[in-house]
Known about the structure:
The structure holds 2 protein chains of 2 kinds.
Chain A: E1 4-5, E2 11-14, E3 19-25, E4 33-38, E5 45-50, E6 54-58, E7 61-66, E8 71-76, E9 85-92, E10 99-101, E11 105-110
Parallel strand pairs in A: 2-11
Antiparallel strand pairs in A: 1-3, 3-8, 4-5, 4-9, 6-7, 7-8, 9-10, 9-11
Chain B: E1 5-7, E2 10-13, E3 19-24, E4 31-38, E5 42-50, E6 53-56, E7 65-71, E8 74-79, E9 88-95, E10 105-106, E11 110-114
Parallel strand pairs in B: 2-11
Antiparallel strand pairs in B: 1-3, 3-8, 4-5, 4-9, 5-6, 7-8, 9-10, 9-11
Amino acid sequence: QKEVEQNSGPLSVPEGAIASLNCTYSDRGSQSFFWYRQYSGKSPELIMSIYSNGDKEDGRFTAQLNKASQYVSLLIRDSQPSDSATYLCAVTNSGYSTLTFGKGTMLLVSP
Amino acid sequence: DAGVIQSPRHEVTEMGQEVTLRCKPISGHNSLFWYRQTMMRGLELLIYFNNNVPIDDSGMPEDRFSAKMPNASFSTLKIQPSEPRDSAVYFCASSPLYSTGFEQYFGPGTRLTVT
Lengths: 111, 115
């Protein structure tokens, strides 16, 4: 059973701080990694994708990938209350074009 | 450009009734996915279509669930008969299926309540 593990949280950070969200996965054949943001009552929204080891930056978001450790992370700099949401980590299944999702980490950014 | 469209947005039905959920993927996307989301189990893949052909239906919980994709712009997920444990949010997602990335774009979901 392919698994994607995330701390359910909530992760609470003050406005302006860096939020660090982590994810581990079990399938060593996974090649593509995604972070989705889901506001309460809404659908998941793709915010970051990463395919190779290292860091990928997009605005206030940085995704980090370490395939040897089977670890993906998302850093949110200068966190805003509007970043309060559940963040889902998703990983492709080897040999397939499907995704396995973690259960998500709830982030709360306080003003 | 319109995103993934799902209907209805909310459905309340009684146990034993048939439920049909509908999805229109993003134009040009050739893969379509049906997911179910609950607090307990998170987001689970039910079935996946590529070029209108079902590729993997191993996530369909039981024979009460069926899905079709008669053409590239329409898919249905049917539950017959429905049971209270089917209550969940059902999402449809589509993907352009690039060679290296498999980004999926989600519709707004259908919140199903079976009483």
